[in-house]
Amino acid sequence: MDGQHWLDDVRRRYDRYRRRTENASEQVNDEQFFAVPGGNPNSIAVLMKHVGGNLHARWRDFLTTDGEKRDRNRDAEFIVDGETRASVLGHWQRGWDTALAELEQLGPDDLERTVTVRGQPLSVVEAIHRNLDHVVYHTGQVVCLARGFAGNDWQTQSIARGASDAHNAMMQERHGDWWSPRPGSGV
After folding, report:
1. According to the CATH classification, is domain 3-159 in 1.10.10.10?
2. Pairwise CA distance, residues 96 & 107, whole Å
3. How does DSSP assign 138-149, residue by residue?
4. What's the start-to-end Cα distance of the chain, in Å?
5. 28-75: pLDDT as tens digits
6. What is the pLDDT of residue 185?
7. CA atoms within 13 A on the CB side of 67
8. Residues 91-119: tens digit of each pLDDT
9. What's the CA gap between 93 and 87, in Å, rounded?
10. pLDDT score at 41
11. Please, what is the average pLDDT of the chain?
């Protein structure tokens, strides 16, 4: 896979997880957005505020400064007392605006460069994978919390239960019979 193709794929993945988190959070009311159920220390609001702060720090001046910025107050990302949904979404959006703008500026030659996070040298590819892993981890938490709150009103973001056969038939119509061995596969 060439560098540009990889970067395009990474941008799509970041966007997918941003949308997945936003879709999940939109399925809960404000009380649920800030709720901390069953001993879970993080609400949807905390998770989104934290991801926004992380993205803003990691991606701001991505190629030229350490990913942990002096002005970042990570511990404050886990406090939402006095916040509103709008203010939390402001933190979230600022992080995403920063990340997506910096990602858009990267080119294939940048993938060979080295950046640091908390002083640890990482290739650009490693740093992106590390950050994407972080986003995916917290996206899963948000989706699980929102799914629990929404109950039977949940609008799935994947293949609905009982719909696998219909989905596979649609994909087979679109992409061909993947059940058969590929030509030249030796199977």
Report:
1. no
2. 19
3. HHHHHHHHHHHH
4. 25
5. 999 999 999 887 789 999 999 999 999 999 999 999 999 999 999 999
6. 67
7. 23
8. 999 999 999 999 999 999 999 999 999 99
9. 10
10. 85
11. 94
The answer to whether the beta carbons of residues 24 and 147 sit under 8 Å apart is: yes
Three-state SS at 44: helix
Q: Whose CA is closest to 132, among 8, 5, 14, 16?
A: 14
Helix locations, the chain, DSSP H = 3-26, 30-34, 44-59, 85-105, 124-150, 164-175
Lowest mean pLDDT among 6-15, 24-33, 147-156, 166-175: 166-175
Q: Please classify residue 164 by burial: count the beta carbons closer than 10 Å to its beta carbon, then call 0-12 exposed, 13-18 middle and 19+ buried.
A: exposed
Contact 85, 33 (CB under 8 A): yes
> In this structure, are residues 101 and 56 in contact, taking their beta carbons and an 8 Å threshold?
no
HSE of 98, CA atoms in CB hemisphere, 13 A: 20
